[in-house]
Design brief:
Layout: E1 12-13, H1 15-22, H2 26-34, E2 42-45, E3 48-52, H3 53-69
Antiparallel strand pairs: 1-3, 2-3
Length: 71
C-alpha cells in the first residue's frame, strides 16, 4: 500500500512562496508591482492576498523568453 501523498502544486502562492519561487527578495516584488512589471495579487479575504501560481510561472517564462530573444 502506498501511503505517500502526491506532490500537488498549489493553485495560489503567498508572498514568501512567490519570492522563493522567483529567487528574489520579498521587497523586490512591491516596486515591480507598482511599476506594472509584475502582476498584482488577488485578494481572497480582508487580510489575504495571493498570486495564482500559473500567473507567476507564466510571468517568469515570459521573462526568460524575452531575455533569450535579446541574445
Amino acid at each position: 500500500m502506498n501511503t505517500t501523498t502526491p506532490n500537488i502544486e498549489p493553485l495560489f502562492l503567498r508572498l514568501p512562496e512567490v519570492a522563493k519561487r522567483l529567487g528574489i527578495g520579498k521587497s523586490t516584488l512591491y516596486p515591480w508591482m507598482k511599476a506594472g512589471i509584475f502582476p498584482a495579487p488577488v485578494k481572497l479575504g480582508p487580510k489575504i492576498v495571493v498570486w495564482p501560481a500559473a500567473a507567476v510561472d507564466a510571468w517568469a517564462q515570459a521573462r526568460v523568453e524575452q531575455f533569450n530573444s535579446q541574445k
